[in-house]
Amino acid sequence: MSAKEDEYDYLFKVVLIGDSGVGKSNLLSRFTRNEFNLESKSTIGVEFATRSIQVDGKTIKAQIWDTAGQERYRAITSAYYRGAVGALLVYDIAKHLTYENVERWLRELRDHADNNIVIMLVGNKSDLRHLRAVPTDEAKAFAERNNLSFIETSALDSTNVEAAFQQILTEIYRIVSQKQIRNDGDGENSPDMKATLNINIPPTEPSDRKKPCCQ
Amino acid sequence: MSREEQRVKSNETNAQQFWKQQQPDTSAITAKFPGRVMKQNSIASTVAVQKNDSRSKTVEHRRNNSTSFELFTASCDDAWDSKLDDCVASDCVQHTVRRSSSASRCRTNGKEGKAKASVSLSSSPSSKQCELRTTSAKSSIVTSADCDPKLSKFKKLLFEDDVCDLNQLRSMAWAGIHAEVRPLAWKLLLGYLPVIRSKRQQTLERKRTEYQHLVLQYYNNRSTNDEMWRQIHIDIPRMQPLISIFQQEVVQKIFERILYIWSIRHPASGYVQGMNDLVTPFFVTYLSEFIPGHSLMDVESFAVSSLPDDTLRGVEADSFWSFSKLLDSIQDNYTFAQPGIQKLVNLLARVMKRADATLHEHLTRHGVQYLQFSFRWMNNLLIRELPLRCIVRLWDTYLAEGAVTTTSLPTPSSAPSNNSSSVQQKSSFISVSENSVWNMGNGTPFACSFHLFVCAAFLRFWSKTLLREKDFQGLMLLLQNLPTFHWGDTEIKLLVADAYQLKYTFTPNHLLS
């Protein structure tokens, strides 16, 4: 791996959760590889992918864990919530049940994830206009009531996929950089921090190349 | 494919060199993948390469090594040929003499773990078998399957003997079963059909009728709001998307029935994602019986609806009962919190710590946890990691091992010959019996021993490639997509040989410490 790809200013761990078949894996493959597969295999346990984006001239590397949607895997997948600074909670706009289950997923996050995790509600499959079962306004209102950001996406036609990840990563970045200013000097990390991937909030890992201005 | 196969026959040595040349390449490509935006997507993803032939060819071309790659691919494509067995035969004979000494060294000294694969390969089949194979190797080129002594022996055991000697069947099956006789051999090894030949047809009919009753009782009365039904329904259309047979509606209905009926009758686990994969090897194998040539490659694209309903119902029922036998032995992989899998993953880490300390440390240093990549290996019995044809071949050995573990070492002399029917009752897919090495003395709470060692062998197969990855993401991305799409019989033989080696190198004491 070349040094260039290894360089980043921040490393954020994000989880993709939601019912089975809502398109989590395709959102991830669209974002990280620009690929979409109509018959992608079901996710077993968890799968990992990564991509870096730029925010305010800083390189942010997102380490994304795609989880299996089935209930039986909950015990395994919930272990991955720990240390995550962001969660994309995905439902299928054409399947109302997957939207109803959002509450259950929020409880899961409350039970297993860090308190200050940034959550974004994602209504996927927005290309299925004729099959829509969840009105945008309803989901939007729900998100506001629960302090979640909200977006509708289509992994199939790429609508808003980039925007969804960009938005949540930017939001995390803002929170983290604010915190960093407050806790100036607290973010001292051992040199091998990057290798151990210890990423709790504050999940910043100043790289050797560029240090955030506050350091 | 046949064209390529012909080419490879002429140049097998060159093909064998493929790994040495390609491994660095593969890792380099994968290593470049992480973090990049849509640049190398076509190269890094195994699936992508598999999906798009033309694209994969470009990649090969870029590697400037297309000839050896194609040759290698083709060389691995002969999982059901006898010729590989014949190739091994000479090894087999060479090592027969040394076998006992090598085997005992392996057992007494863990550091002997690096002994040659050929030694382990030869230590499983009976010496009788070796003689037979030698004969076949010497007797010019075997062109017709009927002339193949191993196949004849399988046929005699399965179709002529009044009582099939299961121990003999096992010892032969370990090195791979001929496609032609595999369906019946599996049914016997699973304990689905009795060893007494005259009783088989009757049993088969009874079980098939019984299954039809289950369909009426459970499937036809199902509630469509059922959560389990919903999950099965979501998963089946996206099962093995690259194999056309599984996209056929008839086949999807068959899988729906098998999975739903099993799940409703096993509420402790119910349907768990990935179980659908576990039906596939049985289904294609039993279907192959009705396809000319019995080739799995042909089965994968076969138009199933062209078969008579009655035949299909038989295949479905047999698949169901075989799948049930398998799951009975590994049900705690799928109950709440999946304790069976968690145990196996921990044991895998312990085996690896000793079997390949360098790799184990490398993974640990970069924060890779075994659960992160091997959960799926256990949950789906490697079906997501290997091509289906390889899984079928691998399961020949699993089925043979499932019962071989009832004796301390599967040497022909130590295998009891008089209790075949009682052993048959106990025969389970990959479980370990009470008498096994694993449970002796300290009663290790453990099943699935052979699969565990196959996973360990599989992981250390990639050792060099993995050691080249220098960070967490490089390792994870590679581990999730190990490039096995061109694997065939040769690799599986090496894999099971290494697993066999590991199994007899490690005792439960090793792993408990």
Automatic annotation (TrEMBL), chain A:
InterPro entries: P-loop_NTPase (IPR027417), Rab_GTPases_membrane_traffic (IPR050209), Small_GTP-bd (IPR005225), Small_GTPase (IPR001806). One of its GO terms (molecular function) is GTPase activity. It is a lipid-anchor. Residues 182-215 are annotated as: Disordered. Pfam families: Ras. GO terms for cellular component: recycling endosome membrane. Residues 206-215 have a biased composition (Basic and acidic residues). Keywords: GTP-binding, Lipoprotein, Membrane, Nucleotide-binding, Prenylation. It is found in: Recycling endosome membrane. The keyword Magnesium does not apply. Transmembrane segments: none annotated. Belongs to the small GTPase superfamily. Rab family. This is Ras-related protein Rab-11B-like protein.
Automatic annotation (TrEMBL), chain B:
Residues 1-10 have a biased composition (Basic and acidic residues). InterPro entries: Rab-GAP-TBC_dom, Rab-GAP_TBC_sf. Keywords: GTPase activation. Signal peptide: none annotated. SMART domains: TBC. PROSITE patterns: TBC_RABGAP. Residues 11-27 have a biased composition (Polar residues). Residues 176-402 form the Rab-GAP TBC domain. This is TBC1 domain family member 22B-like protein. GO terms for molecular function: GTPase activator activity. Pfam families: RabGAP-TBC. The keyword Electron transport does not apply. Residues 1-27 are annotated as: Disordered.
